């Protein structure tokens, strides 16, 4: 066994048979730890790197476990036949995978060198040198771009977006992976035609973007906050209507010049 298969990381879930976050049927590995604190986050148990206890349906559940690349790959390999038939593979999510750069790189490498397609859903919040080490083993980069205004971005997520936008530009320029931009559409934050139009125009400017995914806000993770003893800050916000999403989709298509879709 190659030494890098022994690299350890911390995850909180593995989801098999997913049809989201990349092509085909996928196995999604959710990593612990994130630098952002997005108000709408549907995986608040991913934010802290530390192992936590969360109340789920009245029962305490330990969130987080330490695993090796080899242990994760044992699960990933079980569905190789589905990947082959559907063009699927492994997707890393979180949290922010780049918070565990060595584990992320080595897990992607193990899958890629085993002939399994790889994808990563990420905000791109890391030094570009970290991302550069990952790109050779990454077939699809599903990169979140939440807003073009750094002040509003910081207000709603806890961090400015300068580094992330610069990394998006550099990833696109590298041409080393298929790049898609994913935009969580959050009422009151970025759901105006002007805001979505600005993200779409940026996508067109950096080039080499395959598509834009508009991901409508939902409240599916709200109960997790109570289970963690935290307050859900988006309690009064309702998901965007289908009509609103259709309007924003048209704006995105007009301003980006790339294929756009709702969901993804």
Written account of the structure:
By secondary structure, this protein is an alpha/beta fold. The protein is 34% helix and 25% strand. The protein has nine helices and eleven strands. The longest helix has 15 residues, at 242-256.
Mean pLDDT: 97
Percent strand equals: 25-35%
Task: Give the SSE order as H and E letters.
Answer: EEEEEHHEHEHEHHEHEHHE
Q: What would the principal axes of the Cα set say about the shape?
A: globular
Into which percent range does the helicity of residues fall? 25-40%
Q: Compute the gyration radius: what is it?
A: 18 Å
Largest beta-sheet details:
9 strands, mixed
Kindly state the number of beta strands: 11
Question: Strands, helices and their partners?
Answer:
Layout: E1 8-18, E2 26-31, E3 52-56, E4 59-63, E5 65-68, H1 69-76, H2 80-86, E6 89-93, H3 101-113, E7 117-122, H4 128-134, E8 140-144, H5 150-157, H6 162-174, E9 178-185, H7 193-206, E10 209-216, H8 222-227, H9 242-256, E11 259-262
Helix pairs in contact: 1-3, 3-4, 7-9
